[in-house]
Amino acid sequence: MVETKMPPDAKLAFPKCVRLESKPHLFCPGCGHPEVLKALGFAIDELGIQKRVALGVDIGCSLLAWDFFNLDTIETHHGRTIPTMVGFKRAKPEGVAIAYVGDGGAYAIGMSHLINAAIRDENILVIVVNNGVYAMTGGQEAPTTLPGTRVKTAPCGADRHFVRAPEMIRNVNPNAYIARGITTIQVGLRKTLKEALQHQVENGGFAFVEVLSQCPMNWGTLGRPEKTFEYLEKTMLAAYPVKKY
Asked: What is the largest CA-CA distance in the chain?
């Protein structure tokens, strides 16, 4: 055996450590938005597209993401995030356009924009956070509120109609990338968002990801995480299957 000795003045070449900067979010305690954004941030970094991305945020809880990332960000009028990002993508085809919207901004005031962008196969990614209520304004009934759920504007229970957007978009654009994820399966959510972004990078056309998310503040489960996640992973998951369409 040959013993190798290092010169006394030699220095070990350790890899340079990279310090990751972070910042506190402004969402309510227990909110699922930070978990969606965490998965999105990882997906963007893994694809190395940070300098190409423009993130459009809607009025509502999603607007609190406006300065969360070191990305170019556009804050739009309520419900107008999708056409704004369509305009960005058409003006700058090499860019990566992401519309980050709540269920109210996407399925109520913004529904016509969502459907028409899907029909035209616009090459953007739309991420919709579905927590079943209008959260920022106090918990009113949303297009995603499940039947019988008691909310501020439906104290006796929401009506029987609710929107399943991925299933609907599949009917108008069978070639789009469409999936539904959930905040509590982070690895799967990150993979889904990465695939959706890659779909746009490869000029594949419209990409749509709905994410089931918790809202303890308006669900009345603040401080009771077991109730929060029971509702998310049982009640909401039963109505909104998590899968790729």
From this structure: 83
List 57's β-bridge partners, or say none: 75, 100
| Residues in Cβ contact with 7 at an 8 Å cutoff, skipping those fewer than 6 apart | none
pLDDT in tens, the chain (245 residues): 444 454 555 444 545 556 667 778 899 999 999 999 999 999 999 999 999 999 999 999 999 999 889 999 999 999 999 999 999 999 999 999 999 999 999 999 999 999 999 999 999 999 999 999 999 888 999 999 999 999 889 999 899 999 999 999 999 999 999 999 999 999 999 999 999 999 999 999 999 999 999 999 999 999 999 999 999 999 999 999 999 99
Instruction: State how far the Cα of 124 lies from the Cα of 80, in Å rounded to an integer.
Output: 14
CB contact set of 92 (below 8 Å; sequence gap of 6+): 54
> What is the model's pTM?
0.90
Integer CA distances (angstroms), 183 to 60, 124, 190, in order = 19, 22, 10
33-244: what CATH class? alpha beta
Selection from 203, 209, 217 nearest residue 245 by Cα: 209
